[in-house]
Amino acid sequence: MSVLLYKLGRFAYARPWFVIAGWAAIAAAVVSLLVVNPVKLSNEVRIDGTPAQKVIDDLAKDMPEASGGQGMLVFRARDGGRIDRPASHGALRAAVDAVYRHEHVVDARKALAQQADKGSAHPLARAQDSVAEAAGPPKTTTPPVPLLGAGGRPLPGVLVSADGSTAMLQFQFDEQTYELPAGTIDRLVEAARQQADRGHLEVLPSATMMEMPEVVGVGEIVGLVVAALVLLIALGSLVAAGLPLLVAMTGVVIGVGGTFALSGVLEIHSLTVMLALMLGLAVGIDYALFIINRQRRLILDDGLSAREAAARALGTAGSAVFFAGGTVIIALAGLLVVGITLLTSMALAAAATIAIAVLLALTFLPAVLGLVKEDICSARARARAHEQVGNSARRATRWGDALVRRRGPVFLVTCLVTLALAAPAVDMQLGLPSGASYHSDTPQRQNYQAVSAAFGPGYNGPLMVVARSAERGRPLTPQSLAAIARELKAAEGADSVSLAAMNSTGNTALFGLVPQRGPNDEGTKQLAATVRAQSHSLDAAHGVTLGITGFTALAIDVSDRLADVLPLYLMTVLGLSLVVLLLVFRSLLIPLMATAGFLLSVTATFGVTTAVFQWGWLQPLIGLDATTPVVSLLPVIVTGVLYGLAMDYQVFLVTSMREAHVRGADPVRATVFGFAQASRVVIAAATIMVAVFSGFVFNGQPMIKQLGFALAVGILIDAFVIRMTFVPAAMALARGKAWWLPAWLDRIVPDLDVEGDKLDLRLSTPDAGARREGHRTTR
To answer: Is the pTM of this model over 0.85?
Structure first.
């Protein structure tokens, strides 16, 4: 591997414009696809095979008019007065009219008019009175009242709180919200706001009505600026510091741009783009940094020409980059075994972006170095090389010596610290973000609070209960619908029940079930389980089957499904990666040591994330002021991403130790020497990753905020506590056993030559030495 990459580095360095032109053509092709195919991202959290998703799919067939996305707007007077004052009342009616006139909103007034025309012949009309009588008033809240329109008729979908302070409009889109054209929701809210302003009413959209999150904001830009400063400090040159950023941005253009381009033909979730962007930036910078740092050290320490140093850096550091990238790709590809479409698309997009970053580091980077030539090291850097390297090496060596001298206590303390940080994870609760997850100055949070105060927390996450006749051709009778209403109302945790819609044949009915608690409350989860259990008794007594759907039910099913598949995913990824690490390090103990350290860091990450987001610790530091469950997608995603990145640092650090060991150093001194050689670049790489991920912590979307926070904390813990402290102490405890490999296994495991031993042997021949001398004299 090292010899092959050495040749590749020489080729790219000698023909820079040829290689750069190839990558430029790929980037141009991606941009052209973006021009031809408009970006179409999704916010849908679809988990095929879950009960709630199956109900949605069936409802689209039986009652297509009720299968679109749900919308909700809250209206309240700016002066805190009543909403039913004459001026406010007229403005509210005009705002409701503006919503129903929107091209993508189902006009419930037409359905109401058709029901009035048919009178008692309409299936819904015959059943509503029976259901209302059977259900009775809410258990815990004061029943809201309808808003009256022209002719004294209630306006469909509009409820006014009992104190008259707040009105809520619930309506339906003709498509799921993720399928609506870009800007649809913003235009709808603006149309309602223009009419509401006439009555001094404010309009608050719910969290389910959200457009695509911003891909790059102020936080992300600040993260990149911090990364640039770290590069400048680590490399000591503007030219050298700019190259990793150039490589990373090129990778993002191709990787993320390609993901955008595919959104025209495949369903791409907005979170998929965010994950690819996070990893593309962080990994692209780190891999380029590792190679450039090795090239500079070969120039400054060994006096090699820039050309020869670039080729050798690719043969040694490039090998580590190749296998480090491979572990990240394996960890991401492991998400495919979960069998969830959303995670599959995220894994493929992120893995493709990582693969592009590796290829750029191995081809594009040496080509750019071929243009920069000797300017990769400034005159000042050359003059101060030995002083800087000496100071850095002495500090790293002192720290390494301290770790190996006190290896027992250090090993024990790192374990105890990470376990203490992991303790809150025992209480981790999974869910999807709701309006309560947003900051208090956002419309989504204000909508959630207004609904909770005026109507009750359950109105923020009502359950949609679909009742079907067991015999598809037989209509549901008013008596059976009334029985369903009584059963639903009697369930523990239920507050109110209403019959919302029926299909034209009368064999499918849609109930609205309002819980007593909020959408992420454990009581609401228990209510959903109770209603599903009731389906069996209702089928036996009335020939009716029940199903639950809606955002709240879907969130419950998503959390349960992901919690179930996490152990399988962990076993798959750990098994595959142990094989890769065995090939790289030719050791049994080091892969196990690396995996044990990862398990400590990932559980600590989950603990800190739970403490901050669920318990509310230190939330003002990240722009939050409310507790929220851990996003159900987060454990699986963070496990995969963090494992891959943790193995990056493991490969970078331990290959330096192995390099010293195979060249004759005893195991303890090899640990200290390898640590001194690699720690500086690992610290810089980890700091850059933390900076990039931290930029996403200040994104307005709770899901992206949590993901950025968890990855930043995970890298911080894994790099500085595990790789830079736990691993050297463990290596010193193991001594020579760390490198032990059974003889029979040693014979069958291929030698991948990550440290470049074969390359050194090849370059130590007289011909190779003459060629290297020629490079120095002709530069």
So the answer is: no
